[in-house]
Amino acid sequence: MDSLALEVEDLVMHFGPVRAVDGVTLRIRQGSVVALVGESGSGKSTVGRCIVRLLEPTGGTVRLAGADITHLNRRRLRPHRRDVSIVFQDPAGSLDPRLSVGDIVGEPLRLMRRKDISAKVSESLRRVGLRPEVAQRAPHELSGGQRQRVSIARALISEPRLLVADEPTSALDVSVQAAVLNLLADLQRDLGFACLFITHDLSAVEYLADEVAVMYLGQLVEQGPRARIFGSPAHPYTQALLSAAPVPDPAEQRARRPVLLGDDLPSAIDPPPGCRFHTRCPVAVDTCRTVVPERRTIGEGGHQVACHLVNDDGTGPDVRPVASQSQLLSPGREAP
Ligand SMILES: Nc1ncnc2c1ncn2[C@@H]1O[C@H](COP(=O)(O)OP(=O)(O)OP(=O)(O)O)[C@@H](O)[C@H]1O
Ligand SMILES: [Mg+2]
């Protein structure tokens, strides 16, 4: 069996009455990239923060390379710190303005009382495409893209097994997003760390991810290999989410009609009973309103879904409009 960089089992994170994460189970193999997608407020960042133990989970377990870190205190967490790093959305907010770039990038090693830090800082800066002289500068002297390269250099300097990247490009200028994304992809391939890639950018998911996990109101509704999720999404929410994403081909884009989910995401304080998605699901039936759907495996590569209406072979409802299919027929041609 492949060894696992991360095992999250039935993770729960409540903030008082807010059930931000409510039973998430997720595994990431060494060296593979799992994208975590879902609309704003679904709990993606909270999962990420539990994994790097910026938060102590309310329930469940987090294992890094086999070690249970769920409730370790600061001191006992220290030996595991080098195994996992996080890159945040906003590099301006996550870099201490009083420190030089070199101090920022070297800090994880200083906390581990390592030697030869400045050589490693230069090496880490070089890896992310920055000159070693940048170490003397202050973060505010750099552009947004450069600052995000600095946070990546800092995150990777300890050679972690796992990187949590929480929307690493979404705060950047569109013109530099692709470069930073390419950099992450190159580094992942060269260094071989596992990655939990949290994003709203589905084209980035197609480009980077081996697997996709779809989150809705604190829970995973579907997960599986990228090609399965994009090619035959089973959960109505996944179908809706994918149909709302822009596609590069303008003709196809015009032909598409996103599935409208109507209302906003329901409150995480009082989530709907039964399937949490039933209040917005175009195909919900009575069972969906009362019975919580179990997660089931529906295909190869661990394709799993939690929906009453999906069959065991993965077939089931398709809530996407057929507009793009009808476009494939040539105009004027009659059906036989
Ligand atoms: N520290 C906190 N205290 C109280 N509620 C919180 C806290 N952090 C997050 N939440 C709530 O938990 C839920 C999930 O938030 P989270 O930030 O994890 O979502 P997200 O999927 O990352 O959203 P986005 O895509 O906007 O980043 C939201 O309802 C949010 O308001
Ligand atoms: Mg977030």
Automatic annotation (TrEMBL):
<dbReference type="InterPro" id="IPR017871">
    <property type="entry name" value="ABC_transporter-like_CS"/>
</dbReference>
<dbReference type="GO" id="GO:0005524">
    <property type="term" value="F:ATP binding"/>
</dbReference>
<dbReference type="GO" id="GO:0015833">
    <property type="term" value="P:peptide transport"/>
</dbReference>
<keyword id="KW-0813">Transport</keyword>
<feature type="domain" description="ABC transporter">
    <location>
        <begin position="6"/>
        <end position="242"/>
    </location>
</feature>
<dbReference type="GO" id="GO:0016887">
    <property type="term" value="F:ATP hydrolysis activity"/>
</dbReference>
<keyword id="KW-0067">ATP-binding</keyword>
<dbReference type="Pfam" id="PF08352">
    <property type="entry name" value="oligo_HPY"/>
</dbReference>
<dbReference type="Pfam" id="PF00005">
    <property type="entry name" value="ABC_tran"/>
</dbReference>
<feature type="region of interest" description="Disordered">
    <location>
        <begin position="311"/>
        <end position="336"/>
    </location>
</feature>
<dbReference type="InterPro" id="IPR003593">
    <property type="entry name" value="AAA+_ATPase"/>
</dbReference>
<dbReference type="GO" id="GO:0055085">
    <property type="term" value="P:transmembrane transport"/>
</dbReference>
<dbReference type="InterPro" id="IPR013563">
    <property type="entry name" value="Oligopep_ABC_C"/>
</dbReference>
<dbReference type="InterPro" id="IPR050319">
    <property type="entry name" value="ABC_transp_ATP-bind"/>
</dbReference>
<protein>
    <submittedName>
        <fullName>ABC transporter ATP-binding protein</fullName>
    </submittedName>
</protein>
<dbReference type="InterPro" id="IPR027417">
    <property type="entry name" value="P-loop_NTPase"/>
</dbReference>
<comment type="similarity">
    <text>Belongs to the ABC transporter superfamily.</text>
</comment>
<dbReference type="InterPro" id="IPR003439">
    <property type="entry name" value="ABC_transporter-like_ATP-bd"/>
</dbReference>
<keyword id="KW-0547">Nucleotide-binding</keyword>
